[in-house]
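for the writeup, i need someone to sanity check this before i put it in the appendix. the sequnce is what the collaborator sent (i think, or maybe the updated version? ugh). structure was predicted straight from it, no edits. if anything looks off just tell me and ill rerun, i have time this weekend
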Amino acid sequence: GVLKFVEITVNVLVLICVGAAQASVAGFTSLGGFGTGSFSLNSAYIPFEGTELQQVRELDMQFTQMRAPCVYGGVAFSITAAALTLVFLVVGAKPIQQLRMGLLVGECAFNLLAGTAYVAAVGLYLHFVSRVNATDVCKRRERLYARRGYTSVNCAVQGGDAAVGLFG
């Protein structure tokens, strides 16, 4: 039971980190990367104006859309893994002597499969994040933000992405 709670907690941490990673790289002109790509300019300070603002908006939106498969895949995977772990937790909430051998074998197979799938999923997530970060859109976006002194908007793998890898 304790192991299952730890597994569920780690899945929730991965879910939080996937969302936080997307929100942290979204840029000034998008609402955490989850909205339509822009929000009222009166509600936040944005250091860009005119054509530069339009360029940043377009690049932020393109970048957010390019990262969307990573976000949606990470969210779907972590929720599915947490839900299946919760099912095994509920079904196996009896003394071990009362559990059927088939359930224990199924749970063991699930844990082996889930562990292997997580290694593959984290590798794919980081691969796709690195691919998106290597695009021309990311590099142009980085240069625009750097002109205004914002070096945190860059094409390196961010801390949230590293946390996804760590917890995964």
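The first helix runs from residue 2 to 25. The CA atoms of residues 41 and 91 lie 51 Å apart.
thx in advance!!
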